[in-house]
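Appendix B, record 7
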Amino acid sequence: MLGRGGSKFQFGRDKVIKLSASIEEAIFMDAHPKVFIPVLKTTPLTMPHWREPIIGRENQYALVSGLHKLKNHLWSHSSPYLRENWRLLLEHHLHLQRRTHRLDFNEDLIDRTVRSIKVSKPRLIHGDATLANMLANPDTGVWRWIDPLERTYIPGDPHVDLGKLFQSCWEYERILIDASFKGHFNMVFAHQLAEYAGLDYNQGQLWCIIHIMRLLPYQEARVRIAFEEILSCIFSTSMEH
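Structure tokens (predicted):
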């Protein structure tokens, strides 16, 4: 399955079993059936075998459909979870990643980006809302999300999800599967997503920077190089505003 990181899956004719899912992830998905695909069994997390997006043909429709579900059925719920020290935890995590994996971006990029983030009242979020985490019912064409993500250093802010949508606006999924593709940002569509979400475009870009920094260590060299170049481009433009 596209972009699933280190998670292991077993595929049947009509279901998919995620072996490494935590019980919390399954419970969260099951609690929001209008957002996530149905949970057939929580341990291990078992889901219907829906189809993945066809990259380049229906990605915009899928992302708009997914955004609608996030906005109307997830972000509308307040979250009781927001660590007061999330900003320090995030800075520490990113600095550690940079040193451990020898990532090719300036250390100042971390501090400037994290300091520029604004967080209001915490809301429930997906946490990893890229096109790679969307599936469609093959019979109805209805889209749902999978693989929600929660970390102590990620606040419950809808701009976190907007930044992930922007990651897909950079065609993250196509970069993964096309060795010759370097990435192209659909700025017009990204602005449309931010406007429809009722969120701040520039805050979404800041979170996109953080998401890309976090994904770099887990990519092969070709993908890492492509996204290091993208990271430099995003940072230079976002910090002008």
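Remarks on this record: Residues 75 and 124 are 5 Å apart (CA to CA). The radius of gyration is 17 Å.
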